[in-house]
Backbone:
């Protein structure tokens, strides 16, 4: 506590082999440019509070199942990463300022896990970066590029997963970017003044709900095989499109979109409307259904109001699961429900009153048996067909 650790040839502090420590009200600065301010490995556990870690090779690095809790602290001006966690490490960051680092501000690799709350993340190269199978819960944060827009505010690669709630994300090249088979739930965020607000590429998957997305070049973009559910958002004042699929005629590309976009109950005004997106609200035009009332939003509201209910997605026969396009839609809805903490399940046994051509959605009592051959009287039938 109350110490200054500075100008070492190696790392400022190094915790190994199950070591435990508390760092409080310390300044750790200007240690070796190839080393870091605080290094944790071999299941070490450390808490950092009310401290300033600045101008080191790297800020705080975790490896080999290490754990760190970082609160009310600053991690500034690192030559490389501000905070790096890898190899099953776990990091909790709360009420911190992490800024002006040379590479990503926060980088999670391998199967690392992170919780990032009430923090300010400013960057020149990239904000929060998740790779491999890492996971993070990110809430109540402000994430922006300082200076000319560059990098992504939040970038997910490979099979990473993130829950992003109530964050303000601005002035990045891309506010949130998903690649590979990554998954994200984005809820209650303000995403503005980026070149692209939320961009999904490759086979990434997202649900976006209750967000305000404005004054970007493009609000939400879908590329290649990306999949998304977009419900209850305000998507306005973007320079080109509110929501766009990257294919002709919306984009000068040879790409062919093979994913899907579900949702509704969004406000996505066109150029002639108040706060309209300047080129078009949606492109292609058939995405207009995103502005219509969403039956899925109605279902989610009913499940929130009555925890005894469950949403059931039913196929006429298990062979229908071989229909790749339909199954991806079912999977997206199922993931949306789980991301909202609601009850959802997929039923494949034959039912007499289910159309053989497409899956259908029902609301049933939570205790309703999955193997039932017919829908009971209590069922509220929401959708005739997708």
Residues:
């Amino acid at each position: 506590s109350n110490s200054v650790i500075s100008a070492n040839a190696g790392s400022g502090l190094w915790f190994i082999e199950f070591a435990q420590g508390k760092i409080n009200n310390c300044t750790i600065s200007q240690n070796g440019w190839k080393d870091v301010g605080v290094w944790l490995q071999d299941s070490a556990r450390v808490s950092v509070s009310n401290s300033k870690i600045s101008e080191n090779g790297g800020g705080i690095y975790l490896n080999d199942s290490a754990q760190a809790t970082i609160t009310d602290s600053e991690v500034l001006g690192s030559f490389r990463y501000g905070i790096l966690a890898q190899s099953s490490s776990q990091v909790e960051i709360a009420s911190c300022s992490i800024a002006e680092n040379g590479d990503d501000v926060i980088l999670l690799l391998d199967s690392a896990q992170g919780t990032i709350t009430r923090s300010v993340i400013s960057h020149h190269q990239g904000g929060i970066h998740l790779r491999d199978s890492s996971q993070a819960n990110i809430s109540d944060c402000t994430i922006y590029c300082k200076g000319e827009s560059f990098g992504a505010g939040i970038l997910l690669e490979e099979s990473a997963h993130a829950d992003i709630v109530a964050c303000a994300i601005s002035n990045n090249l891309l506010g949130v970017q998903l690649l590979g088979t990554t998954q994200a739930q984005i809820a209650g965020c303000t995403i503005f003044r980026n070149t692209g607000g939320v961009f999904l590429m490759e086979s990434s998957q997202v649900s976006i709900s209750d967000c305000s997305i404005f004054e970007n070049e493009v609000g939400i973009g879908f590329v290649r095989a990306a999949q998304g559910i977009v419900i209850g958002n305000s998507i306005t004042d973007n320079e080109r499109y509110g929501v766009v699929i990257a294919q002709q005629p919306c984009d000068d590309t040879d790409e062919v979109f093979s994913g899907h976009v579900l949702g509704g109950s969004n406000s996505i005004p066109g150029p002639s409307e108040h706060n309209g997106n300047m080129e078009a609200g949606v492109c292609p035009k058939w995405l207009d259904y995103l502005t219509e009332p969403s039956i899925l939003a109605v279902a989610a509201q009913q499940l929130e109001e009555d925890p005894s209910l469950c949403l059931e997605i039913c196929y006429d026969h298990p062979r229908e699961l071989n229909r790749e396009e339909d199954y991806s839609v079912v999977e997206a809805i199922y993931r949306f429900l789980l991301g909202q903490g609601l009850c959802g399940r997929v039923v494949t046994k034959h039912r007499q009153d289910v159309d053989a051509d497409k899956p259908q959605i029902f609301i049933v009592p939570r205790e309703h048996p999955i193997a039932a051959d017919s829908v009971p009287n209590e069922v509220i039938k929401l959708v005739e067909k997708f």
